[in-house]
Amino acid sequence: MSVKRPSRPDLRTEHAAITRSRVLRAARTLFARHGYTATTIAALAEEAGVAAQTLYSAFGSKAAIAISVMEEAVISSGIREANEAALREPDGEKAVRIVAAAGSRLYSVEAELVRLLGAEVAADFARISNDHRLQDLKRLATSSPGVASRFAGKEDATRAAVAAWAVSGIETYDRLVLQAGWSHEEYEQWLGDTFTRTLQPGQTKPSRQGKKQALQKERVGKKGG
User: Fold this and answer.
1) Number of structural domains in the chain
2) How far apart, in whole angstroms, are the C-alpha atoms of residue 144 and residue 84?
């Protein structure tokens, strides 16, 4: 009777994963230090401790490395787990706020990385990111029980998802936080409120921040009277 030996990980696969991790870590360091344009393949290879040809074999180009850095940021933000959690959440408002919070974290990281990369690379990634975000919001609007039930049908839910998609993403985060000076917390609250109004039609309950502002206005009015 033969005894089946436990399977061992493929050493080449394991080595490739380690090399990829080292290259991406080197890219994050050098892009932040020198910017995307000034960082050469030779510098990336030296920082990662690999041969330039190994880097080309693993990624193909510097642009592909930059895209991989941003894709890694997507994974580390927790947006994928948040999207799955939102699909399981029976409370519609909680579901959309879960997505808004995770999205805000993601846009913060992406916006900073985009500023370090060349315009062409940033544009390529923005297209990829926008497409994924649109598909995720459509799935939320049509498949999450607490969200889909707010709409008469799939067509209405999809239109609402497109509207939510249009006001979110890296570009909006850049305008409101990096340019207009909003705090990250203010942006996350605004995005959550906006998603709630768009994806929870008829949900008129004000947010905690909105209640606080309304109470302040009421107090000022009483003093003035």
Assistant:
1) 2
2) 9
